[in-house]
Amino acid sequence: MVKNSFISIISQEENKENRGSVEFQIFSFTNKIDRLTSHLQLHKKDYLSERGLLQILGKRHRLLAYLSKKTRVDYKELKELIDQLDKTKTRVDYKQFKELIDQLEKKPR
Question: I need a surface site. Which of 6, 10, 39, 84 has the fewest CB within 10 A?
Answer without folding.
Answer: 84
